[in-house]
Amino acid sequence: MAEHSFYPEIEPFAVHHLKVSDLHRLYIEEVGNPEGIPVVYLHGGPGAGLQPKYRRFFDPDLFHVILYGQRGSFPSEPLGEVRENTTRLLIEDIETIREHFKIEKWIVFGGSWGSTLALAYALEHRQRVSSLVLRGIYLGNKRQNDWLYKDGAGRLFPEQWQKFRDFIPEVERGDLVSAYYRRLMDDDPTVHLPAAWAWTDWEGSLIHLVPEVESEPLPDDVILSMARVECHYMYNDLFFPEDDYLLHNVHKLNGVPCSIVQGRYDVICPAEAAVALAAELPQTRLNIVPTGAHSGSEPEMASRLIEAMLELSGKPKA
User: Fold this and answer.
1) What are the angstrom distances between the C-alpha of 308 and each of 36, 58, 158, 215?
2) Using 50, 70 and 90 to split pLDDT, how confident is the model at 317?
3) Is the peptide bond before 46 cis (omega within 30 degrees of 0)?
4) Which residues, 6+ apart, have CB-to-CB distance to 103 below 8 Å?
5) Residues taking part in catalysis
6) What is the pLDDT of the chain when averaged over all its residues?
7) In what order do the strands lie in the sheet with 37-42?
């Protein structure tokens, strides 16, 4: 199997600010070849926002990539806004973007929450999806949420879990998501900022197989937006009509090519979800990366994602 590295750093050839409601304006980048194969990149979180490295999964000669910040997510505006922010509205935004750029069909590429949103969008607009490339499958069900916020991941990372849990008084620990939600939505910075850092530190400690060297910390407003938007979705059960909505309905996507790249040691989104999804979609190519965790930026994970895109282009490189 060929090894593929991130493409060199690249700047967008166009940047847009698209108003999708009286409240929300989305930041959108176009990267690569304007005449290339259309791709939409759905970032994680919910609320994680964009980073320049996300542009580098795609061969700039082959793909026309649309990357954007979802509602409330950096660098869209208003940052951290949870009003008019639901899964249904995010699906509508994807269609608004597609229509804005006059794209008939596109590859939908998403990791973690991005995989959730990609599947939800495809269920509503299958005819607009040429294929799916998914990483770190998150089905948005109670089983996965309880693993992360009640009983599961904390068994593997007990020190970090203790910090996350003990930030909340013992009397409220029966429902940590609700307890954090109350604090994150509080107007007082002395209440919401410490909660935002505790929330993001917990998930951030689980992302990599080998912890990364500490980088420059994100600004408080970005940390707050990430925590608020994500907790808003968790508190509202991802706005799905039923538990396991995606797994119960994904059979409707039979015939849509799907490539899944899943880290064997993904603690945030354990591999069982990827296996369950692939079982419902017989045409899926499931690639479980032996040394992979949750991050798509680790070398072998990135290599497999880049390879999946090249295969869809019809021009895989040796």
Assistant:
1) 16, 10, 35, 29
2) low
3) yes
4) 38, 66
5) 112, 266, 294
6) 95
7) 14-19, 25-32, 63-68, 37-42, 106-111, 129-135, 258-263, 285-289
Residue in 68, 76, 64, 78 with CA at minimum distance from that of residue 35:
64
Length of the chain: 318
Determine the Cα–Cα distance for residues 146 and 126; give it in Å rounded to an integer.
30
The pTM for the full model equals 0.96
Lowest mean pLDDT among 129-133, 208-212, 272-276: 208-212
Give the mean pLDDT of 258-281.
97
pLDDT(75) > 90 = yes
Domains of the chain, CATH where assigned: 14-141+241-313 (3.40.50.1820), 143-239 (no CATH)
Statement: residue 1 has pLDDT above 60: no
The pLDDT tens digits of the residues spanning 283-300 come to 899 999 999 999 999 999
